[in-house]
Amino acid sequence: MKHLYLIATVCLFTLFACNNNANNTKISTTGEVADTVKLVSIAALDSRLANADSVVMLFYKDPHGADSLRYTRYYTQYNSNDTALLGDLKASLTDATVKLEKIKNCRSEGKIWVFKQGQIFQTIYFSSKDAACSFLYIIKDGFFYYAAMPYGFAVQLKSLQKKAVEVPNQGE
Asked: What distance in Å separates the CA atoms of residue 91 and residue 151, rounded to the nearest whole number?
């Protein structure tokens, strides 16, 4: 009888633990931990984005090269206060995000510093390498919030990358 009681207790505990985990998180095959429910948009996570008046876009020169630790040191830069570009950026930040505890196993191809009255207040990282690594993300409270990269904005970034200029004294 004691064995039956012990087995029933272990089964109930295991069932409760599995159900509790299923409601909160899922673990992907890459070891990333993500909320099972899509979260709010990047725009909703940082309401200051609605008031952005300029951006600086950095495009890494060799984001997929052999140097995985220092590839962000060399970049070209595009500065803008164009309201149409800012509107496109803001529209690209309205899709739902996925919250991860670890960064995805994809290198960023660049980042966007977002400003209001000359003060930087947010950094948005981006990549459009392929379907698995096409995203915009921010870091907030130690978590990574990923949103899908809209195709039109990815095309726009590629176009702006051609206009970006090299900043002097990089890597010194």
From this structure: 12
